[in-house]
Amino acid sequence: MKVAIFIPCYVDQVVPSVGQATVRLLRRLGMEVVYPSGQTCCGQPAFNTGFWKDAADVAKRQIQIFLDSDAEAVVCPSGSCSAMQSVFYPTLFHGQKEEANAKELSRRTFELTQFLVHRLGLRDVGATFVGKGVLHRSCHSLRELNLRTEARELLSQVRGLELLDMENVISGDSSCLMHLGGMMSKRGMKVKPIHLAEVLASTS
Length: 204
Hints:
- This protein has helices at 9-13, 16-28, 44-48, 52-68, 79-92, 99-108, 112-119, 139-143, 150-155, 174-186, 196-201, and strands spanning 2-5, 32-34, 73-76, 109-111, 128-136, 159-163, 169-171, 193-195.
- The chain contains 11 helices and 8 strands.
- α4 packs across α6.
């Protein structure tokens, strides 16, 4: 399957290892991964603060870039950015000429765990990650994408990983991890926040 990877700006600029891990994982699973180099911010900051015209200007370009990639699926290691393209683009262009293309991109866009579990039908991705961790489920994954069990199902099959109810942090959203990491650092906690893609991509 040809998959276009959508990398959120903060992943690109702050934690590129998350994007690299996502690509490694998808390639290991046999996907043909392409990176549409013209992609930018999805427009979520402008959309969330009420600047819908500015968000639409960015979204129009994103829609064209990803549809031109001719990929069967667009995969993103972020619940919030996936939700922007799959849930809010059709809302943003409701009743406008771009609505059909927005809905088409919405149909093709998947958050990483959503893609693995619902599109590929996988639970065990062959990962090994020795350690202990607790899963943090992001707001957008829960509220907008209705992803409630997918991440835990995938993590439960990771060899060497013991899932706990507290202390260590794994999340599918880098923005959440940055907030949690900053808070824990200020409190002097020796806990490493890590993205779910980095766990699933690990084989040792």
